[in-house]
Amino acid sequence: MKITANGISINYTLDGPVGAPVVTLSHSLATTLAMWEPQLKALTTRWRVLNYDTRGHGGTDAPRGAYSLDQLAADAQALLGALGIQRTHWVGLSMGGMIGQTLALKAPQLFTSLVLCDTSSRIPPEAKPLWDERIHTAETKGMDPLVEGTLSRWFTAPFKERGGPVVETVRGMIRSTPPAGYIGCCQAISGLNLRSRGLSWSCSSPRPIYPTWSSLRPSPGRSRASSARSADPARTARLTGQGTRL
Fold first, then answer.
1. Residue by residue, what is the 3-state secondary structure of the chain?
2. What is the CATH number of the domain that holds 225?
3. What is the pLDDT of residues 153-165, one digit of tens each?
4. Which of 48, 182, 216, 242 could cross-link with 20 by S-S, CB 3.0 to 4.6 Å?
């Protein structure tokens, strides 16, 4: 489905029981809402799930020019408003986590919780040449030269070499990302510094949850799934440092 919000057409899906608590899914750079497909069946049994394509990605408009995280957060806020969603859990991966943090600083009343996956609140100045290089590549050669390097950052070498539907699906998402959208979002990410805005969390703020692989490690004789279901969020939520997905 599509809806106009913050001056652009945004592609989204909204599934799950009407009236259930809302979970909003926000994907990473160079992917689409299809990234969350493996999670949707489980999530939509209990929650109303809003899944959307970020500006510059998938079926959402990709206007030319530099974007900012404030703009991407305003897109999300406008989408929530247009759909009549007053409060949501937010699950953001990489860029999606940056958007969630930015919006939470502006409008914390919108959030029940923040699940921030493989993300950061600051991109160090010394990383700017890396982002400039990616922007230059997309401007001059398109997305094809960026595909394999991106896959190598996201998957282990053995998993990537085995290939299969997961790798091919993600490869297709990266390759099909509009260059203008990729460039705009790279410019937004490269300037990220939420710490300069006094990013902090208090008892009145939405609780941030930082999932880690180690936090889901099962106890002896128990499956990872059963450990995850019974885990105490207050004990398993931890900040592990800057993500590597970028």
1. CEEEECCEEEEEEEECCCCCCEEEEECCCCCCHHHHHHHHHHHCCCCEEEEECCCCCCCCCCCCCCCCHHHHHHHHHHHHHHCCCCCEEEEEECHHHHHHHHHHHHCHHHEEEEEEECCCCECCHHHHHHHHHHHHHHHHHCCHHHHHHHHHHHCCHHHHHHCCHHHHHHHHHHHHCCHHHHHHHHHHHHCCEHHHHCCCCCCCCCEEECCCCHHHCCCCCCCHHHHHHHCCHHHHCCCCCCCCCC
2. 3.40.50.1820
3. 999 999 999 999 9
4. 48
